[in-house]
Amino acid sequence: MCVIKLLKEPELEEPILIEGLPGIGFVANIAAMHIIRELKGEKFAIVTSSSFQDFAMTVEGGGVRAPINELYECAGRYIVLYGNTQAGSNVGQYELCWRILELAKRYGCEFVLTMGGYRRERVVGRPKVYCAATDPDVLEEARELCDGVVAGNIYGAAGLLLGLGKLMGMKGVCFLAETPGFYPDARAAKEVLSVVSKFLGMEIDLTRLEQAAILTEGMLRDLLEEEEGRKGGIV
Amino acid sequence: MCVIKLLKEPELEEPILIEGLPGIGFVANIAAMHIIRELKGEKFAIVTSSSFQDFAMTVEGGGVRAPINELYECAGRYIVLYGNTQAGSNVGQYELCWRILELAKRYGCEFVLTMGGYRRERVVGRPKVYCAATDPDVLEEARELCDGVVAGNIYGAAGLLLGLGKLMGMKGVCFLAETPGFYPDARAAKEVLSVVSKFLGMEIDLTRLEQAAILTEGMLRDLLEEEEGRKGGIV
Amino acid sequence: MCVIKLLKEPELEEPILIEGLPGIGFVANIAAMHIIRELKGEKFAIVTSSSFQDFAMTVEGGGVRAPINELYECAGRYIVLYGNTQAGSNVGQYELCWRILELAKRYGCEFVLTMGGYRRERVVGRPKVYCAATDPDVLEEARELCDGVVAGNIYGAAGLLLGLGKLMGMKGVCFLAETPGFYPDARAAKEVLSVVSKFLGMEIDLTRLEQAAILTEGMLRDLLEEEEGRKGGIV
Amino acid sequence: MCVIKLLKEPELEEPILIEGLPGIGFVANIAAMHIIRELKGEKFAIVTSSSFQDFAMTVEGGGVRAPINELYECAGRYIVLYGNTQAGSNVGQYELCWRILELAKRYGCEFVLTMGGYRRERVVGRPKVYCAATDPDVLEEARELCDGVVAGNIYGAAGLLLGLGKLMGMKGVCFLAETPGFYPDARAAKEVLSVVSKFLGMEIDLTRLEQAAILTEGMLRDLLEEEEGRKGGIV
After folding, report:
1. Nearest 5 degrees, angle CA C63-CA C68-CA C72?
2. C-alpha to C-alpha distance for A158 and A113, rounded to whole angstroms
3. Is pLDDT of B230 > 80?
4. CA-to-CA distance for D106 and B75, rounded, in angstroms?
């Protein structure tokens, strides 16, 4: 069971589907959230699937939120897939991605862009961004903006949307930024989005993402020092 | 596969769906059973799902019962979901909850109330009751009657019915009572039902539930003393 | 996916569905095979399910058999469910049983009889036969022919057909014979069938089953003696 | 979900379905690839299933490939099932095989031929080829070309296509060649294809497969010697 509830008809012209679900380092999730905020995206559909977790999450103060995916229309050109979960089984993932691609196609979408984190033990300096694409032309374009190409499998919706999209006749590209992966990585999200915005010719201000990255880095540094302090105390 | 067999058309006006399936401490199950008994509920539908266990249970004397969920009409105002099992997979849970909500909606239901236990290592004195709600207005109302709000996820049908109900445009609230969770906790059920009845303006006599709670507590005390006696013997 | 392929229209009058799938000690399987042979049953349908194992079995000489269930018409009064497998998941079991019950109902079936083994560490003398039923009248009748009633759950198709049958308005009974369960137990099958034939007023010759039981017992005795001989040799 | 996308209508006359999916030693996969190349097969359908893995594979240089199955028309007489994966669950396998058989039947297919590896600790000399068949006539024919018959189960699509095909009224045969199974075994593929081509009266040049086998054997010998050299050094 996968139900898409349309909240309103979006106005879109040859839109590009941008995937931003939670994954490694929450890179895509953070980047998608930033696009939605900066481009004043409007939610036009909510998606639920029987492969999501069977519980409700409570938020501060006793509010209740269901595991959900949402579609936002941004700048009349992008459909951003955002949410707080991915499907928990491969059958569920296929159905979810298939249904979202079908809907996107109905609005004229012929291009899918997915994002994510590329797990690294240690990320030194600026996180590098890697790409992969279903089409040689697209790949060439993407490579010019990236530090290299993805080696290995692309897991979850980020990979599946490309493969299923191709079956539906859509071209697709994926951008992954290096990340240690164990915390929400705004720095990696910023690097991915920097490449994505160039690739798409998307005008977007990355200042807030840079601020979030600096904030996160500060917090991590404090944590690290504290830990080293404790270690020192033991010695 | 989820099959709802309608036994008769219930007479209901803007009914409220009350969930009472087995869960932590059987709190919801006991409370729902009490509502059905006191309000002389009439069974109007039985629900089976391929996600229930694939066996038959025997009861005393060789009778056979299937894993099942049932819907009761109570006082023309409530649909009580009662049963001896929940679905064993999240796909099954989604389908089951979805189908029950659809049916409830068909009878004009716009509000879902779920109940349950809130597991605690140790419950001191009267079990506290916590709430969560999908809607700020409802939450405010509920908080006035409770000791606090739920933190963390609400598992199973109690959580899912809220989330899916919201997607279908229904408001929802959940009440959880503290319970150690390892025995059928009539005390917790009484506390939850005490709040629920105030919240709904439901006229219901809780005497029998109080008696069951006292009985259970007596049995537990005996068990405890016996155990301590044995420990003493060893020393 | 559960596909029932009808090979021919059976001629049946208010038939009784008799379940004989593989289970503990192959008790039902052996008993059903005996009914089919003695009553010259005719196969009228084959059933396949995506919950059966995904392999083909080879038989002596290179033949290939699929995991399958079959329906036989016996004596114009019985539908015997026979096969070499049960479904491997509860979702599959529900679908399979549901579909078979639907078909049986179409032929006027209002009664389901299931059989099986009742696992015992040690079976002394004649294996006892226990019963369970969905209906008080049926239970009473069955108890008169049995050594007692089943306590605990009835797993697999033997249990599920009763529960789902009840939902479809069919009465049902289950007979289980004691068996150690680790070998095909013709003795237990004979005991079950002896009760079943009395219960149904089915005229059936149990000689061959008795012979098979004696043969099996001889083989087991030999194995046992051989083993004890070996143990003796070690001492 | 199992989606077959027809790329074009193949021209086929009473075609034979030949299975060549990845399995033990990639025997069928290599043999099928060879048939497609030598007979200049044309892809006419792509198949995706929600039971395939939920990721995209990247290939050298950043290209992206989805887990997929494909159907090729070869010489107007064969439908070759080729791909880079099998379904990951038995439910998925059943649906996939069923759908492919349905499609094949629509083109007049009445015969299924499956291939595979027969795992052996040690293969001495020419790998032996074993057969199994759903029909006595076919089995007799196949046995004359083989070293023996298959004992035990035939796993995956190779087995399931036979069993389900039989249910659909198609005859079927399976040829398995001995293989250690842990590397892509071109030698075993050649032996299987040698038997298959005789069985089908298929004119096909096996030279390239022989070359690949020699190449593989050379590489394995080098690896082995290197390893023994290392062992020697240790002693």
Report:
1. 105
2. 8
3. no
4. 58
Instruction: Using DSSP, state whether C135 is helix, strand or coil.
Output: coil
What are A121-159's pLDDT values in tens digits?
Answer: 889 899 999 999 999 999 999 999 999 999 989 999 999
Q: Chain B, 28-47: which have a CB under 8 Å from a chain C CB? A: 46
The β-bridge relationship of strands C16-20 and C111-119 is: parallel
In angstroms, the CA C143 to CA C129 distance is 10
Task: Tell me the two tokens of residue B212.
Answer: 């069951």
**Separation CA D71–CA D74 (nearest Å):** 10
- What Cα–Cα distance (Å) separates residue D54 from each residue in A25, A97, D51? 19, 10, 8
With DSSP H G I counted as helix, E B as strand and the rest as coil, what are the percentages for chain C, rounded to 5?
A: 40, 30, 30
Q: In sequence order, which residues have a C-beta less than 8 Å from that of residue C152 and are 6 or more positions away? A: B58
Q: Give chain B's end-to-end CA distance (angstroms, integer).
A: 57
Per-residue tokens: A235: 């010695």
Question: Which residues in chain C are contacts of D166 at CB distance < 8 A?
Answer: 64, 66
Nearest Cα residue to D115 out of D75, D68, D161, D77: D161
Q: Is D135 exposed, middle or buried (0-12, 13-18, 19+ CB in 10 A)?
A: middle
Q: Kindly tell me whether chain B and chain D come into contact, counting contact as 3+ Cβ pairs under 8 Å.
A: no
Alpha-carbon gap, residue A173 to B115, rounded angstroms: 46
d(CA B119, CA C144) in angstroms, rounded, equals 47
Nearest to B27 by CA among B130, B125, B149: B130
Q: Which of A97, A153, A168, A195 to mutate to test the interface with D (most CBs of D within 10 A)?
A: A153
pLDDT band at B225, cuts 50/70/90?
confident
pLDDT at C53 over 60: yes
CA pair distance D209, D195, nearest whole angstrom: 14
Task: Give the per-residue pLDDT at D143.
Answer: 97
Question: What contacts A196, CB < 8 A, 6 or more positions away?
Answer: A18, A31, A113, A115, A175, A202
Residue D216's pLDDT is what?
87
Tens-digit pLDDT profile for residues D149-196 = 999 899 999 999 999 999 999 999 999 999 999 899 999 999 999 999
Q: CB contact, 8 Å: B145 with chain A? A: no
Residue-level pLDDT at A216: 87
**Are B156 and A68 an interchain contact pair (Cβ–Cβ within 8 Å)?**
no
Q: What is the dihedral of CA B146, B151, B154, B159, to 10 degrees?
A: 60
Task: State pLDDT tens for residues B99-147.
Answer: 999 999 999 999 999 999 999 988 989 999 999 999 999 999 999 999 9
- A161-186 CB burial, b ≥16 within 10 A, e <16: bbbbbbbbebbbbbbbbbbbbeeebb
pLDDT at C191 over 90: yes
D23 at interface of C, judged by CB pairs closer than 8 A = no
Instruction: Say yes or no to pLDDT of A235 above 70.
Output: no
Give which of D134, D160, D176 to mutate to test C binding, by max C Cβ within 10 Å: D160
> Which is nearest to C90 in space by CA: C172, C169, C32, C164?
C164
Question: Could you tell me if A27 and A188 are in contact, meaning their C-beta atoms sit under 8 angstroms apart?
Answer: yes
Average pLDDT over residues B37-61: 94
More confident residue, D229 or B195: B195
Closest listed residue to residue C188, CA positions, set C205, C157, C209: C209
Nearest Cα neighbor of C112 from C57, C174, C23 is C174
The conformation of residue D176, written as its DSSP 8-state character, comes to: E
Which stretch of DSSP H or E encloses residue B131? strand B129-133
Residue C162 to residues A217, B51, B56, C19, C107, Cα–Cα distance (Å): 62, 17, 7, 10, 18
Mean pLDDT of C89-103: 95
Pairing verdict, β A78-83 and A16-20: parallel
